Amino acid sequence: MTNLSKEIERRIDTRLDLSLPITLFVEPRIESISRDVCANGISFEVDEGAIESFSLGRTISFEIVANISTYRLPNKTVTLSGTGVIVRNAVVDNHKDNKKGCFVAVKFTKSLNVMSVSL
């Protein structure tokens, strides 16, 4: 008997592989880069020593900075803020500088807020 749950895509939203700067408002405040983003959440890595700040079920606040180019506005920076619940955390080997890290996935609890747009 095979395990079909590993073969079936269960994600509701399409993930975008975007590396966006993210500030995580935990103690102490942590700067990271997203691994991927979708309409309902974001994932990122932090140093393994910070894993206590990212326990399952914890609600965290964050800011995401995105640089966007459009035809009429070639360069603009949008800062988004929001809150989310940690739905996954795991120690991973492929962290920067060949050190172990902590992979974290956060599900947004409500829509993100646009904090600023700069040209």
Describe the strand arrangement of the main beta sheet, using strand numbers: 1-2-3-6-5-4
**CATH homologous superfamily descriptor:** predicted glycosyltransferase like domains
CATH T-level fold name: Thrombin, subunit H
Number of strands: 7
Integer average pLDDT: 86
- Structural class by secondary-structure content: mainly beta
- Gross morphology: globular
Order of helices and strands: EEEEEEE
**Number of domains as seen in the coordinates:** 1
The low-confidence parts are 1-5
Q: Compute the separation of the termini in Å.
A: 57 Å
Radius of gyration: 16 Å
Number of helical segments? 0
* Fraction in beta strands: over 45%
Give the proportion of residues in helices. under 10%
* CATH architecture designation: Beta Barrel
Q: What's the level 1 CATH class?
A: Mainly Beta
| Most strands sheet | 6 strands, antiparallel, barrel
How is this structure best summarized?
The protein is mainly β. The protein is built from no helices and seven strands. The N terminus is likely disordered.
Structure description:
This protein is an all-beta fold and 119 residues long. The chain has a single domain (13-112), classed as Thrombin, subunit H, CATH 2.40.10. The chain is built from no helices and seven strands. It has a six-stranded antiparallel beta barrel. The chain starts with 20 loop residues before the first strand and ends with a strand. Mean pLDDT is 86; it is low at 1-5.
